[in-house]
Amino acid sequence: MIRVVIVDDHPMFRMGVRSLLLSLNGIEVAGEAADLPAALDVVAAVRPDVVLMDLHLEDGGSGVEATAALVRRDPQVRILVVTMLDDDDSVFAAMRAGARGYLLKNASPDELERAVRAVANGDVLFSGPVAQRALGFLTGARTAGSPFPELTQRELDVLDLVARGLDNLAVARRLSLSDKTVRNYLSAILAKLRVADRAQAIVRAREAGLGGA
Looking at the DSSP assignment, which residues form a beta bridge with residue 6? Predict the structure, then answer.
């Protein structure tokens, strides 16, 4: 029996997915959550085989942060992202956080079933529209060496978007993070680069080639 936890802030979506999963042989819904704290609690309590994770959670929470927190607690947890977001930043952020699969919410019931069973079996699965991006990420197609080796990959992501002129809220939306988390990343970036403010960080980033279109 595959035990699934659904983490999504939309009650109607949770209801629909629960009904679908309960109609399938060998799958049961072991719990649900709408925000990060509830997700941590229910996953710890029921220890599911698969967690279905949306990227936007209740009260502005981030499914990427929830994924990372769950993986830190248990590296063997298997998380399948199910979201409306199909942009590169969301896909790569989820993968870096430790997601084992990425499915769009417009996927068919058969696709969702296959994805749940595949991730439960230890496979990594991405829906068709995002598979090529995932492949490029996994093969290092986007890796060209870091201009700031002292920064983590996520800090580089934040710095790159800031260098493009995005404000904190826009960066948070692009990376599926909370505004507070973006502020924390920026504080770390300023300290590591030994610059006084955001403007100086942008200058350093653009001199290093970040912030391009």
Answer: 32, 52
β-pairing, 101-104 vs 27-33, is unpaired
Nearest to 7 by CA among 38, 44, 47: 38
| Tokens representing residue 172 in the block | 């948070």
**Residue 51 contacts residue 39 (beta carbons within 8 Å):** yes
pTM: 0.69
50-53 β-sheet, strand order: 27-33, 2-7, 50-53, 79-83, 101-104, 125-126
Q: How many CA atoms lie within 13 A of 130 on its CB side?
A: 29
- Tokens 């590169």 belong to residue: 88
Instruction: In whole angstroms, give the CA distance from residue 71 to residue 126.
Output: 19
For 156-209, write each residue's pLDDT tens digit: 889 999 999 999 999 988 888 888 889 989 998 998 898 999 999 999 999 998
Say if residues 75 and 31 touch (Cβ distance below 8 Å). Answer: no
User: How crowded is residue 209: how many other Cβ atoms within 10 Å of its Cβ?
Assistant: 11
**Does an H or E element contain 198, and which?**
helix 198-207
Task: Please write down the long-range contacts of 192-198, taking CB distance under 8 Å and 24 or more positions apart.
Answer: 192/148, 192/150, 192/151, 192/155, 193/148, 193/150, 193/151, 198/162
Contacts of 162 (CB under 8 A, 6+ apart): 171, 186, 198, 201, 202, 205, 211
